[in-house]
Amino acid sequence: MAAQSDFILKVSNLNIDLSNQKIIENLSFGVKRGTTLAIVGPNGAGKTTLFRALLNLVPYKGKVEWNGKVKVGYVPQVLSVRDVPISVKEFLALKSTSESDINNALASVGLEPDVIKVKSMSVLSGGQLRRVLIAWAIVDKPDVLLFDEPTSGVDLDSEEAIYGMLRTLTAKNKITLLLISHDLHIVREYSDYALAVNRCIVFFGESKDVMNPETQKLIYGEPICREYGEAYA
Amino acid sequence: MLDTVVYGLIVGASVGLAAGYLGSIMVLEKMALVGDALSHVALPGLALGVLYNFNPLIGGFLFLFVSAVLIWHLGRVTRLSFETLVGAAFTLALAIGILLFGDNLDALETALFGELGQVGLLSAVAAVLVSITVILLTRLIYRGIVLGLISEELAVSRGINVGRINLLYLLLVSLTVAVGIQITGTLLVGFLVVTPAAAARTISSNLSKYLTLSAAFGAISAISGILMSSYFSILPGPLVVVSGVVIFAAVLVVRWRKGRPAQL
């Protein structure tokens, strides 16, 4: 078992009720520094609600413990950036960072800072928008990044490129990544561990096993809660 | 007469700037009608001022202030949108205001459509101070509001108290509307919050341009309306509205000539 200091996040007996409905039940898991953990599960399984609990955005019972003073970055699935007349530079500046940090973040996601900064967010292509969102996520150098569906609205070719970029950036900057994805192929290729939730934990293990038909049955079949005493990613 | 016009221009420019600046948020929040409707809530306060011989603008502001706090609180408790709550409040306020004015039709007309003659040195100084305060405070909360527009949970996750910001914002709108009522009246002051921002939105691709143009269009609408009002000796409110609509139409034409559809 890993030492206590290796863990950046520990969740114990997490329970979430919203509008008198049980959304999350008895969830316990831990995440080690530098790991990429994919949260998977069918629609309505409570994945986004789990993220929101980790960020203290919804009331919950149980314990969510971040190890020390960690800076947590978050990119939600839905962002109304196209409804606001805002340039890429202004969007990134909402995080109060310096011009050089903004330039570095944009360059690290493969965008030309001087060209993209002056563009309005509303005219970006789906791929460019996702890259800008990744730049937004890393611009203030977080220790942990929670990313809800990083490639939502992006075509399949760009999807691999974006995940590849996320992997490089998180490794280079020693960022612990928690991501929500529906694509098990992506989960297998780009994460270390997979946590499947369907109200409770229905599967936990190394991501290389998620394409296994038996595992897929656990994830998407009839939800059967399982105890993983050592659900440590 | 000249003094009145000069004071009127100072009040108009100040209120136009502040209203245009604040209105840029209203248009983004798709709450344009809230700004318009909220202004009517001042009517009972104005009526009480006339009835009991105190400055009607103080009464108007107090009604706007209390209504804004109530609407903010009810919005949090009931989860109803501001638009719904303001919609309910403004019709009630309009009815009460008209009943309170009774047969004092001249005072009612002034309250509804504004009157340059009631503007003096004190009003001008107050308008400048209010405008500066409103613009400075709005600048402070703008980042949080824009982040909240993009994603409320993102704003909350970054420690921004969206509820408190919304309350401050409603109070700033109340303050601006209360001062603007002198020029345009309760029926038309909402225009200054909505139309300049709508015109700026159609030709802005970034926030700084949007804010600057919105404030500038507000000020230009008010100044040109007041100048025409003193020239033609008619009520300023409707002329401020006409000036603003001309700006809006001109902006649409410019955009159309550039070959881009208007984007609201």
From the structure above, extract its key features.
heterodimer, A: 233 residues, alpha/beta, Rossmann fold, B: 264 residues, mainly alpha, ABC transporter involved in vitamin B12 uptake, BtuC, 84% helix
Overview of the structural elements:
- The complex is a heterodimer of chains A (233) and B (264).
- Chain A is built from eight helices and nine strands.
- Chain A is globular, with a radius of gyration of 18 Å.
- Chain A is α/β, with parallel strands linked by helices.
- In chain A, helix 3 crosses helix 5 and helix 5 (126-138) runs parallel beside helix 6 (156-172).
- Chain A folds into two domains: 1-71 and 142-233, Rossmann fold, CATH 3.40.50; 79-141, no CATH class.
- Chain B is globular and about 50 Å long.
- Chain B is built from eleven helices and no strands.
- Chain B has one domain (2-257): ABC transporter involved in vitamin B12 uptake, BtuC.
- Helices cover 84% and strands 0% of the residues of chain B.
- The interface between A and B is medium-sized, with 25 and 21 residues.
Summarize the model shown.
Chain A is of the alpha/beta class and 233 residues long.
Report the average pLDDT across residues of chain B. 86
The helix fraction of chain A, in percent, is 25-40%
The greatest interface between two protein chains, and residues involved on each side, is: A-B, 25 and 21 residues
As a percent range, the share of strand residues of chain A is: 25-35%
Q: State the shape of chain A.
A: globular
CATH architecture descriptor of the largest domain in chain A? 3-Layer(aba) Sandwich
Kindly report the oligomeric state of this protein: heterodimer
Q: Order of SSEs of chain B, N→C?
A: HHHHHHHHHHH
Structure class of chain B? mainly alpha
The major beta sheet of chain A can be summarized as: 6 strands, mixed
